[in-house]
Write a structure and sequence with these properties.
- The complex is a heterodimer.
- Chain A is mainly α.
- Chain A has a domain of about 160 residues: MetI-like fold.
- Chain A has 14 helices and no strands.
- Chain A is globular, with a radius of gyration of 24 Å.
- In chain B, about 15% of the residues lie in helices and about 40% in strands.
- In chain B, a hairpin with a 2-residue loop joins strand 1 and strand 2.
- The longest helix of chain B has 18 residues.
- The chains are: A mainly alpha, B alpha+beta.
- At the A-B interface, helix 8 and helix 9 of A face strand 6 and helix 2 of B.
Chain lengths: ~280, ~500
């Protein structure tokens, strides 16, 4: 039997179309443009020039690269975002844990106390923090202080993004798991390490990726808090683009992208989550 | 309500003394007193919300009693945290750790264990220290535990790939691998289908025999309790109703609740004219019970299988068959004898509409003391000459307090001698008969309102217990069928409220 007319069936998959279009227009195509610019010259011809410039600008090979301005900026960025992430995690986990386990009926109010700062304009907050640093006399005091101040700013700015996912996973953990652990002889500390912590891993992972990656690029924080003396990778890209060096900028953007993939891979973000994917339906 | 036992105290493995538990001021378990003997299979049986799981959780250490003591082998463990109790639990929903595989789940308890080892140090002193169990010992024990539950070779499997029944077995293996003194099981078979459940019942029973440890089992399934237990503790409303062997609980229920909850039963209201004789359904029956007052009102329990169908001439009771339902091994037959409906189980069935005679042998009749003969409250007379009691306010006749008295126009009581009395705030005893209270759907129609918390069919009427918001109970009889948890308004006619003055020296009580 040949079908002459295909009937239009509305399925749930169709609901994904707007997002797919959005994804194509604002993520996939721009990304391809970035790749295009990274590997072409002004005439639009393919070239390795910008790869060479990035890794071997001084002509001294990799040794020169390790001493280059670009490399130092990337390392500084990595250090700042790693520290920010660790400090955020150290603060956020206990906070999320305590809120999730407290006996108060209105836990969301307590959680709100940590979220409310997000409602104040971000530039305002950072400016206020700057004034605080000035008052304390640590603003632009030395290179080390500038790094510290940047980290404080990042932690201040991104803490809620760490608390929320961790809180959500902890609150979802069935109490009976903890009871079972204690029943089997685990001390409260052991029960936490062996049950609560592993079961809240997914919250930690999404918290880490929501803090680590933005804190590599959010140069508003570093600019405001260090009198533009601390450069991070985001600022580097900005400098190239504002300086009309689109090809160099695009290549560094690719390097950043590489880091993002690396972090996502390291934290297991690509692993298919058995539970969420249980229905087995994919977009296409 | 202690269990009578010939065994001495030394065999008590766990004992609860006056244990009470409240959650947010609401009492869940009240004055629990009982003990469990070593090696016993004991079951807490009761409807949901009766406090059985709370009791189990207190033994496990997850909940602390509000008052009272829990003794393990004679030692007070009330304040001991769960990880230090030699007790393991099989949870209702298994609570297997989803991030660990079967082996890691079962080994979890063993990995926490520390054994005392003695060794001789360099100076020649013998010292003891706590050591972890060596890996090969753990592996061996896990293997054995998995063999016991029939799941050898499942070590590497992840929990989410197991069926409900397999998860159930792993949960049991995870508990018994620690060789606990007591194994607690909280409705462990609730999530399984009927056939699986029956199989697991027998397996658990066999496991109990093989392991020789004490099992404390919680269930709301009376058949499960009867099948598996050495001893059953029947609970309702946070209190123990009866403790005994399955046979004694089935054959000699202590009250109507137990009779109704365990198995099918006909419950009648009757009187005991003398020992060995009981009147109910308008007829005299021989029975084996004795020790009641002359003409004491009693409840009579007759199991459906103890009612025999005879020809009309041979029967003590006569009635018409109203329904016959085939149940597999027997027929369930309903016979209407005048006002009384009697349920019978028999392997042969009469036709619907037949008139039959019924006989009940003396050993098929079980006589119990009536729990509720009258509702008793303490009340207070208000300004309007109404009476407040049992979380409500009712109109009443206050002149019954003083014979020959009457009320004047202002509402003062004039006694027979002509004295003028103000009764406001006078405390009185209030009595209302079961049959004098009626229920209504209309809020505010009666003097008090509450939810029906219990109903028991007594062959000619239903006996209801209605509980008000502040936990005052009214017991009443009604021929109509209402549902449990219905919100009802309670109506008591003015002339049915009996008032008596409280003795003056009685104080506030």
């Amino acid at each position: 039997m040949t079908e002459t007319k295909t009937k239009f069936h509305f399925s749930r998959k169709l609901l994904a179309i707007p997002y797919a279009l959005f994804l194509a227009a604002f993520v996939v195509i721009p990304l391809l443009i970035v790749v295009y610019y990274a590997f072409t010259d002004d005439a639009g011809k393919f070239t390795w020039e910008y790869v060479r410039v990035f890794f071997n600008e001084s002509g001294e090979g990799l040794l020169g690269f390790f001493q280059s301005y670009n490399f130092k900026t990337i390392m500084r960025s990595l250090f700042i975002s790693t520290m920010s992430t660790i400090i955020c995690l150290l603060i956020a986990y206990p906070v999320a844990y305590i809120i999730a386990h407290c006996k108060l009926k209105n836990k969301s109010t307590l959680l709100l106390l940590f979220i409310v700062p997000m409602w104040v304009n971000f530039v305002l907050r950072i400016n206020a923090l700057k004034e605080l640093f000035v008052w304390l006399g640590i603003y632009n005091k030395s290179e080390a202080w500038n790094i510290v101040n940047t980290i404080i700013g990042m932690v201040y700015d991104f803490l809620p993004f760490m608390i929320l996912p961790i809180y959500t996973t902890i609150i979802k953990i069935d109490k009976s798991y903890l009871e079972a652990a204690k029943d089997l002889g685990a001390t409260p500390a052991k029960a936490f390490l062996k049950v609560t912590l592993p079961l809240s891993k997914s919250g930690i992972v999404s918290g880490v990726s929501m803090v680590f990656l933005p804190s590599m690029t959010n140069y508003v924080v570093s600019n405001y808090l260090t009198f533009r003396n601390v450069k991070i990778i985001g600022k580097l890209i900005d400098d190239y683009f504002t300086g009309d060096l689109w090809h160099d900028g695009s290549f560094i953007a690719l390097i950043l992208l590489l880091f993002m993939f690396l972090v996502t891979w390291l934290t297991g973000g690509f692993e298919a989550d058995e539970q969420t994917n249980a229905r087995g339906t994919s977009l296409w | 309500m202690k269990k009578t036992s010939a065994l001495d105290n030394s065999s008590k493995i766990i004992e609860l003394v006056d244990v009470c538990k409240e959650f947010d001021g609401v009492s869940v378990v009240e004055n629990m007193n009982f003990y469990v003997r070593k090696g016993e299979f004991i079951t807490f049986l009761g409807p949901s919300g009766c406090g059985k799981t709370t009791t189990l959780r207190m033994i496990a250490g997850f909940d602390m009693p509000t008052s009272g003591k829990i003794l393990l082998n004679g030692k007070d463990i009330t304040a001991l945290p769960p990880n230090l109790r030699p007790v393991n639990t099989v949870f209702q929903k298994y609570a297997l750790f989803p991030h660990l595989n079967v082996y890691e789940n079962v080994a979890f308890g063993l990995k926490q264990k520390r054994v005392e080892t003695t060794y001789v140090d360099k100076k020649g002193n013998t010292k003891t220290k706590l050591e972890k169990l060596p890996a090969h010992v753990i592996a061996e024990k896990v293997k054995k535990a998995l063999e016991i539950v029939d799941l050898s070779g499942f070590e590497k499997r992840s929990i989410s790939t197991l069926s409900g029944g397999q998860q159930q077995r792993i949960a049991i293996a995870r508990a018994i691998v620690n060789e606990p003194e007591i194994l607690l099981l909280d409705e462990p078979l609730g999530a399984l289908d009927l056939k699986m459940r029956k199989e697991m019942q027998l397996e658990l029973k066999a496991m109990h025999r093989r392991l020789g440890i004490t099992f404390i089992y919680v269930t709301h399934d009376q058949e499960e309790a009867l099948t598996m237990s050495d001893t059953i503790v029947v609970m309702a409303d946070g209190a123990i109703q009866q403790i005994g062997t399955p046979e004694s609980i089935y054959n000699e229920p202590k009250n109507t609740f137990v009779a109704d909850f365990i198995g099918e039963s006909n419950i009648f209201s009757g009187v005991m004219p003398k020992d060995g004789e009981v009147r109910f359904c308008g007829k005299k029956f021989e029975c084996l019970d004795s020790g009641f007052e002359k003409d004491e009102p009693v409840d009579v329990v007759v199991r459906p299988e103890d009612v025999k169908i005879k020809s009309v001439e041979d029967g003590i009771l006569k009635g018409k068959v109203t329904s016959v339902i085939f149940k597999g091994i027997h027929y369930q037959i309903l016979v209407q004898c005048g006002r009384y409906e009697i349920e019978i189980q028999s392997t042969t069935a009469p036709e619907v509409g037949d008139t039959v005679g019924l006989v009940i042998k003396p050993n098929g009749i079980h006589v119990m003391k009536k729990e509720f003969r009258v509702n008793k409250f303490t009340g207070v007379i208000t300004k309007r000459n109404t009476v407040e009691f049992g979380d409500g306010e009712f109109e009443c006749d206050v002149t019954q307090l003083y014979p020959g008295s009457h009320l004047d126009e202002e509402g003062y009581l004039i006694t027979a001698k002509g004295e003028k009395l103000d009764l406001t705030d006078v405390e009185v005893n209030v009595e209302v008969d079961l049959h004098d209270i009626t229920m209504s759907d209309n809020e505010g129609e009666g003097g008090a309102q509450g939810h029906i918390i219990s109903l028991i069919y007594k062959s000619e009427y239903y006996r209801y217990i209605v509980r008000t918001e502040n936990e005052e109970d009214y017991v009443l009889a009604c021929e109509d069928l209402w549902n449990e948890n219905d919100l009802v308004s309670l109506i008591i006619p003015k002339d049915k409220i009996r008032l008596t003055l409280k003795p003056a020296e009685g104080g506030k009580q």
